Amino acid sequence: MKPQAKARPVLTEGPIAKTLFLFSLPILLGNVLQSLNGSINSIWVGKFLGETALAATSNANIIMFFLLSLVFGVSMAAVILVGQNLGAQKVDEAKRVVGTSAVFFAAMSVIVGLAGIIFSPHILDLLNTPPDAKELAVKYTQIMFAGIPFMFGYNLVMAVLRGSGDAKTPFYFLLLSAALDIVLNPLLIAGIGPFPELGISGSAIATFIAQFVSFVLLLMYLYAKKYFLRITRNDLHLLRLDWPLIGVLVRKGLPMGLNMVVVSFSNLVLIHIVNAFGSESTAAFGVATQISSYVQMPAMAIGGAVTSMASQNIGAGKWDRVSRITWTGVAFNIGLTGSLVAVIHLFNREAVGLFLPLGGKAIELGVHINNLTLWSFILFGIFNVVAGVVRSAGAVVVPLIISFIALLLVRIPFAEYFGSAYGFDMIWWSFPISFAIGAALNLLYYRFGNWRSARLMEAANRTKPAS
């Protein structure tokens, strides 16, 4: 029974600020690590294979991001369900979620992987992939699709661990995966030492190997440690397609996945608007986007942490702690994101100069864009943290609608109309305006909405078959 003793949900006890900080830190470091991994791999591909190969991987990565958005939503639904059940001391129900999710993710990964391998050329045609990059993109994409089962599997296990209060273990194995990927990429692309020269296929194979090794070792580690939510021989009956429970996971997960799609789509449309102002403006916006992606990371990590913490406390019926988690998360976001924004403002030109040649017009534009937009990501953080708490109760549709309103109905029309009518600067004012509206709407829903009555755990548990 020792593993069960360690299984008691730690996120419902102890000081909230310290617990939230220690829980969100590995998530933050993991987000930074993934971004660095992608950036370094792009450098390897660009250095060894040139711009055409880089364009090929960019097109493939758009497809992977869309798939990860959808699987992210369902895995977040699993986080919330696992967390609420553990908060309520219902370990058997949490295991039921794990068993059903494992079978569902395995089935979906095989279907998606095979479909992707077969239809990669047609998918890339739909993306209007440049003809000179098409052949390379097909090779790269097909290998990436072959690795989908390990990608989906890792995301599910990471979600279950975070739902149970463990953010450190996923980070350690993410670190292993990133290190393997970064080291293997140049070896397999260029054929260094005993490794074969595989070109762009080598980059995809490096990612495949890294994900496979990390996923398998993670599972071995959890079983060696007798992790309390592992599926044992006595739990094999839980490995089944429990369709009513899957329905709950999909109904709650799809809006969270679509939220990522909304964010991505709004950025693509914004790029289209900026392109009209010339290549220097596009380059400056690209650099500002790279920098802002790191500025957003504290808010994203805190948002993920408050979702896990709040879900356990909702399951335990500790609504006073849920309220304190919310405002502690908001305060952390203001402090961490605000500090990061202040540092970048102090070294704004140096930060932009890491990506652009000094003295050109683009670097001046990049500095100017940062001056107008970076501070608004504090508002984005409030928007994200409050939405994370609301989602932890199972209320996922209203946060999606608010994101749609703020990013597609406010930011894009504002940037398009006022940018054309009054000039370049109005595009950047669309950031604080849209984020402020999103934050205000989420706060209003948090204060006056009925999200506390979502009853996600009860809906999922009603699907349990009679014994």
Automatic annotation (TrEMBL):
Under NCBIfam families, the record lists: matE (TIGR00797)
Q: Which InterPro entries match?
A: MATE_fam (IPR002528), MdtK-like (IPR048279), Membrane_Transporter-Flippase (IPR052031)
User: One GO molecular function term?
Assistant: xenobiotic transmembrane transporter activity
Q: Which residues cross the membrane?
A: 20-40, 60-82, 102-123, 143-161, 173-192, 204-224, 258-277, 283-306, 327-347, 367-386, 393-414, 426-446
- Its recorded name reads Multidrug export protein MepA
**Encoding gene, per UniProt annotation:** mepA
The entry's localization annotation reads: Cell membrane
Cellular component terms, GO, for this chain's entry?
plasma membrane
Q: Which Pfam families match?
A: MatE (PF01554)
- Specify the protein's topology with respect to the membrane: Multi-pass membrane protein
Per UniProt, the keywords (alphabetical) are: Cell membrane, Membrane, Transmembrane, Transmembrane helix, Transport
